[in-house]
Amino acid sequence: MKSALNRLWESTASAPQVFDPRRLTHLPDLVQRYLNHSITPGTPLASAVHLRMHGQIKLNAWSPFQAEQVIAWNQGMIWSATAWMKGLLPVRGADSLINGCGDLRWKLLGLIPVMTAKGTDITRSIIGRMQGESIWLPSVLANPDRPWTVINDSQIQTPVYLFGETTPLQLTLDDRGRLQFLDFQRWGNPDESHYRYCRFAGIMHDEEMVAGYRIPSRFSVGWGIEDLEMTDEQSFFRATLDSITYR
What we know:
Layout: H1 2-10, H2 29-38, E1 48-59, E2 61-72, E3 76-85, E4 89-98, E5 101-108, E6 112-118, H3 120-132, H4 138-141, E7 149-150, E8 155-162, E9 165-173, E10 179-188, E11 196-210, E12 213-223, E13 235-246
Antiparallel strand pairs: 1-2, 1-13, 2-3, 3-4, 4-5, 5-6, 7-8, 8-9, 9-10, 10-11, 11-12, 12-13
């Protein structure tokens, strides 16, 4: 999967345009505040991001992990990771969305399959994940033609279109325009009953400025999270970004 991740990254091209806040002056003030906080004027409008991260993932119990990810907008994504069950047994694999098809492949000790899945439901769920992860590519959200709705004095919403799926993405901001909370309806099966749209959300704990982008760098996500007071029962993933590269 490492070679597939590298191929996806190498297939992306350098950004031809740069961020110009003057093109956004027709948007609501709160939207401009978010985008101007997230992107420095003159920053190339990237179409891809390469992330490295570490954290904890809930595999029955909380397990440490390290991961590498490429998100190439309108192309696909790969999240390749190793987690250690009980701190000892390595589970390696990837969540991927390539050529419009989602795929989950995870093996214990690199040999014994522990999760293998693909098909329409998996594809729709990974598309939803990628739509939510547009927050690491705020250049995607900075299109001056993108429609936005202001919900109140701290929340904005925009539809994110990707591979035939549309997801209204809701962002909660602080007074500076920093992203604090993200939520949207994602196709999934969190209780293993049946696939349907479920609330998926994340709390953004810290942020970092890299190559002209100011993005969340430490975060927790899960199904059914209602607000910033998230519990362990609601979250299944906690991560800190170690490196961020744009193209």
